[in-house]
Amino acid sequence: MAVDELDTRILRLLIEQPRTSVREYARLLGIARGTLQARLDRLERDGVITGTGPALSPAALGHPVLAFVHVEVTQGHLDEVGDALAAVPEIIEAFSITGGGDLVTRVAARDNGHLEDVIQRLIQIPGVVRTRTEVALRERVPHRLLPLVESVGRAAAAQRD
Q1: Contact criterion met (CB below 8 Å) for 108 and 66
Q2: End-to-end CA distance of the chain
Q3: What is residue 115's predicted lDDT score, i.e. its pLDDT?
Q4: What pLDDT does 161 receive?
Q5: Which residues does the chain have with pLDDT short of 50?
Q6: What per-residue confidence (pLDDT) applies to 83?
Q7: 48, 1 in Cβ contact below 8 A?
């Protein structure tokens, strides 16, 4: 999907001012509301915009311990283990990966004891061979997309010139 300079400006506004109305976005961008809505619809349809909900803090929800748990899976059981991981509420994300292990999960826990309980639950899942856990100490770069959006916009502008 090609993202042009206007798309980049729209995405920047969505990231920087997520609670603004479509009418106000159009005013800030200097474009018609219909043009903006058509662009937003296309960006959603193409999977660039994947949601509009609030960003939540696991720490503020009482789960300040963040860990990355790597899961090694018996061959042929990746889908079943992935489905079982989806039933564990403390697993915020899970990805199949290359390299050492088959899956990596991001886990939020109340404390280290709770993290151990979650890991013990993972070990009990049929098809899980072993786990390896890394506890995050401090967030150094928060989840962000604006630098990527700006990079895509610069590349689109350079191609046009």
Answers
A1: yes
A2: 19
A3: 98
A4: 72
A5: none
A6: 97
A7: yes
Phi/psi for 133 (5° steps) reads -120, 140
The predicted model scores a pTM of 0.85
For residues 103, 142, 7, 33, the Cα torsion angle rounded to the nearest 10 degrees is: 110
What is the number of other CB atoms lying within 10 angstroms of the CB of residue 84? 18
Strand partners, 104: 70, 95
List phi, psi (to 5°) of 145: -130, -15
The DSSP secondary-structure symbol of 53 reads P
Cα 22 to Cα 25, 55, 129: the distances in Å are 5, 20, 49
Q: d(Cα 118, Cα 88) in Å, to the nearest integer?
A: 8
Q: What is the DSSP letter of 109?
A: E
Measured CA to CA, the distance from residue 129 to residue 4 in angstroms comes to 46
pLDDT of residue 55: 85
Instruction: Dump strand ranges (E) for the chain.
Output: 65-73, 91-96, 103-109, 128-135
